[in-house]
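Chain A, query sequence.
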Amino acid sequence: MLYILIALICLLIVGSIFYYNTLVNKKNRMKEAWSGIDVYLKKRYELIPNLIETVKGYASHEQKLMQELVRLRNEALQHQQNQEKINTENQLSENISRLMLIAENYPDLKANTNFQQLQTQLETIETEIELSRRYYNGTVRENNIQVQSFPSNLVASIFGFENGIFFEINNSAEREPVKVSF
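Chain A, predicted structure.
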């Protein structure tokens, strides 16, 4: 009977160590994925002032949008919490889209080589951000499954492991299907 008790205790210890290490692995993958997003967001932050300066000369009456972009960029640079950063990034993406739509109204701006280069860089960065978000959300999913599944949820609750936050679209209009009509 004593050997069975010792074996169960050893099994419990080994299982706890296994689940703890798995949870640490998932948490670190999630952090790594977030840092990948952060790299592309910083590139976008560096690109925004150049884009604004290029557009300013052509669309001076769109000053409010330009100021809002600068404000959101600065705010995004300051946020450290994932949820705050996600919300600010969604607003920033929305305003960048508006800026690109405004540029469509200015043929001279669209023909400007500097603007075309900045637009191409922005499109590339936005694609990289999208890919990074997908990877990050995958790591969050894996982490959350591990944190919520039995018996690893027992180890997670003892050691304070938490669910990750998905990087989701806040603007419900972006979720709507695109309507094509001829």
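The two ends are 80 Å apart (CA to CA). Residues 144 and 163 are 5 Å apart (CA to CA).
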